[in-house]
Write a structure and sequence with these properties.
The complex is a heterodimer of chains A (296) and B (364). Chain A has 296 residues and is an all-alpha fold. Chain A contains 14 helices and no strands. In chain B, strand 1 and strand 2 form a beta hairpin.
Chain lengths: 296, 364
């Protein structure tokens, strides 16, 4: 490689080459050193994330002669699929209710009540302040036997309602931030006014103008919520929803099957990644639009 | 009574008066521009017509119907925004047909109308594209078509060309005017660009600090500015302080050199402001009966025009324009020259409420 018209290949190889090349300016050498550090940090970070996964995988495939026995057992277990399905449905209902609450709130705060933003942000952060165990016991106290409002903790349906209600609150920090970031990326006020001048009412503006333009943000919030709900243990356990996926995982960890929890962890991890890829694929169109529009 | 009537409209934000005593009567099919600097209240007034802001006082009437308290979606007013405001999730056809879908028009009627409007804005066959696939000028034309699709009683345009480059701005403004004439739609256009306002409008409303400074045809605004602010904001001009010598005869003194206005001076005891357009002053003595003498301080070549500055003493100067000519022989800088202008070119300005620009400043 020679001359000024060619660029060193990107990556460690390129860095090494540029490092070895004689006659380079000192600035270039400094950049080379910087790049090596960047790569070292990147590799260290990657190992930090990958090594536990590799370790878990190696552990989960230890049974002989059938290394995938734990996976087969987990997938054949009714508790696994039932728990996953229960938590998945609870997650979907949570997402639906959370969107119904958060999107109009965040929209209205951006459009008409910007001064209320710190208050709304604080309220949405409450799940980080109030531990789930406190939330769950609070719900049982208020909606349990002798409730002054309504007794919900006495029936299966009531407990399911309480569980979803608690999950909706847990989803607030993630959903609000995702939606608020999405709203920041579009000119909410002008789009609203344009729709109003066309004769549109608030419902149509939200459904046909705001919601569709928040697709990526809504997906991000939705998948984060789903991931939290599927892995949640404390509230489900306290509300006796042991059929949920979190309590199932906990039960499995205490069983005599040592390899199954590792297999379940990796399956859960895989499902989360599938969800992330889904976000990336579904949100691709809108990102392209933003980029192209920005380039003009 | 006009088709669009604004009577005593006022808008306050707390203690701040954004618009006060705004009165305007626009005829059906008229093209009216609100012209003024940033913060003069022109956009606030437009937004009150659209319904996005509510007047603190006064009334807005369209075709005899008081719409002052009506929400924006109940007014039949189309609006084009500076930032286009096309819905990114909808195609061009979807955007244009949006208002018609709200009005529950049949699908075939919407399709036909969208096709007609795409023809009108010169974008036939682009209905299935998304806004991000269009240039800025094309997007603004789609925004115009969208506003027109609902057949509004009044069309409002809020600095629609500001985000576009100069060449597209000129061609698009011609297109906007042509479409407006073709459809005969009453239009209010907000701009801070005097060239846009003068070239497009039937009438121009010049605003400053929430007040109307002058309403008139472009020619009236340019040739007979009512206030010092209008004179300084619209066009290029010389603003000079003159002493009144004889108010009834219209005689004035500019740094010891006597000139005469065409009309008697109304409020003249002591000093008054006079405005002179550079193009109405001639080098030499053939431009009119008024003459001023002084050293030629500067000559600027502006392409088709050559601008000269002649000193009048005490740092005061007067600028004049002459058309460029390859054979133009100009005096040397420093040489004493005479400039002349007719009495009619000497505009004695009424006392203005707006802060006056610097003496002799050339406002553009």
């Amino acid at each position: 490689m020679s001359g000024t018209g060619t660029q060193a290949p990107f990556g460690p190889l390129g860095v090494m080459r540029s490092w070895l090349q004689s006659g380079r300016a000192a600035g270039s050498r400094r950049r080379g050193i910087g790049s090596i550090w960047a790569w070292l940090i990147f590799i260290a970070g990657g190992l930090y994330f990958i090594l536990p996964l590799v370790g878990t995988y190696l552990f989960s495939t230890r049974p002989r002669p059938d290394p995938f026995l734990a996976y087969r057992q987990v997938l054949a277990d009714d508790g696994f699929l039932g728990g996953l399905l229960y938590s998945f449905v609870a997650g979907l209902v949570t997402i639906f209710i959370s969107l119904l609450i958060i999107v109009p709130t965040a929209y209205w705060v951006r459009l008409r009540l910007p001064r209320a933003r710190p208050i709304v942000e604080f309220v949405t952060l409450m799940p980080f302040v109030v531990p789930p165990i406190v939330l769950a016991f609070g719900l049982i106290r208020i909606y349990g036997g002798g409730s002054p409002i309504i007794v919900l903790a006495a029936t299966d349906l009531g407990l399911n309602i309480l569980l979803v209600a608690a999950y909706v609150i847990l989803s607030f920090p993630y959903m609000y931030r995702a939606v608020d970031t999405g709203l920041a990326a579009i000119d909410v006020r002008t789009l609203t006014e344009a729709a109003q001048s066309m004769g549109s009412g608030w419902g149509r503006i939200l459904l046909q103008v705001i919601f569709p333009n928040l697709r990526t943000a809504l997906l991000s919030g939705a998948f984060l919520t789903l991931a939290i709900v599927i892995g949640e243990y404390t509230i489900a356990q306290v509300l006796a929803r042991t059929q949920a996926f979190g309590p199932y995982l906990s039960l499995l960890g205490r069983s005599s099957q040592p390899f199954q929890p590792a297999a379940v962890s990796l399956i859960s991890f895989g499902l989360t990644w599938i969800a992330m890829v889904a976000i990336a694929l579904l949100g691709r169109g809108s990102r392209q639009r933003v980029q192209v529009a920005g380039a003009r | 009574m006009g088709f669009l009537e604004l009577s005593g409209v006022e808008k306050r934000f707390g203690d701040v008066v954004a618009v006060e005593s705004f009165n305007l009567s626009a005829e059906r099919g008229e093209f009216v521009s609100f012209l003024g600097p940033s913060g003069c209240g022109k956009t606030t007034t437009l937004r009150m017509i659209a319904g996005f802001e509510h007047p603190t006082a006064g009334s807005i009437i369209i075709d005899g119907k008081d719409i002052t308290r009506q929400p924006p979606n109940r007014r039949n007013v189309g609006m084009v925004f500076q930032a286009y405001a096309l819905f990114p999730n909808m195609t061009v056809a979807g955007n244009i047909g949006f208002g018609m879908r709200i009005r529950r028009r049949p699908a075939n009627e919407i399709k036909k109308r969208v096709g007609e409007l795409l023809e009108l804005i010169g974008l036939p066959g682009r209905g299935e594209r998304y806004p991000w696939q269009l240039s800025g000028g094309q997007q603004q034309r789609v925004a115009l078509a969208r506003a027109l699709a609902i057949e509004p009683q009044v069309l409002l345009l809020d600095e629609p060309l500001s985000a576009l480059d100069a060449k597209i701005r000129v061609s698009l403004r011609q297109q906007i005017r042509a479409i407006q004439r073709q459809l005969g739609i009453t239009t209010v256009y907000v701009t801070h660009d005097q060239e846009e306002a003068l070239s497009l409008s039937d009438r121009v409303v010049v605003m400053s600090e929430g007040r109307i400074e002058q309403i008139g045809t472009p020619a009236e605004i340019y040739n007979f500015p009512a206030t010092r602010f209008v004179a300084s904001f619209v066009g290029t001009l010389n603003l000079l302080t003159a002493q009144v010598v004889d108010a009834r005869a219209g005689r004035l003194s500019v740094h010891g050199q006597e000139i005469q206005a065409a009309k008697p001076i109304d409020d003249g005891h002591g000093g008054v402001s006079i405005a002179l357009r550079p193009e109405s002053i001639e080098l030499g003595e053939n431009g009119g009966s008024n003459r001023l003498r002084g050293p030629l301080e500067d000559v600027s070549f502006l392409g088709s025009i050559v601008r000269m500055r002649v000193g009048l003493g005490n740092g005061t100067a007067v600028s004049l324009d002459t058309f460029n000519d390859p054979h133009l022989a100009l005096p040397a800088v420093g040489e004493t020259v005479t400039v002349s202008f007719p009495r009619e070119a000497c505009l004695v300005l009424a006392s203005a409420s707006a802060p006056a620009p610097a003496e002799d400043a050339l406002a553009v």
